[in-house]
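So, can you check this one?
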Amino acid sequence: MVDVRSSTRGTSRGPGRLLVAVYLLFAIAATSRAGLQIATRFDEARVAYLLSALAAVIYIVATVGLARGGRAGRLIALACCSVELVGVLGVGALSVVDPELFPDDTVWSRFGSGYGYIPLALPALGLFWLWRTRRDPTA
């Protein structure tokens, strides 16, 4: 018999599978975009392209954390989603206030408008899912 009090709900089960799939999709998209930009036009907008590469790494690590689950996976995903949320809010605000700071878009520019604002919603959904699947405090 399984002791319900000692288990956590899996981060990659149920709707979590869709979240992991979207994170994986964004990991691939951001990695591809950043790689191409760095390889072909790095001199044009170094900061923007490096931020896109950072976003790609965060998406990759968040995907692994969410898919893995468990204590370590949850901590990794929590850190990644938090950094991602701060990044998209910070870069998004800066790119709106002073567009000249980013001569070319990053994944997080204008709060992810180039990606349908999914980069803004994704860390919020990730953090919500981590909260939703935490250990039951009443058990």
Helices lie at 15-41, 46-68, 70-97, 118-132.
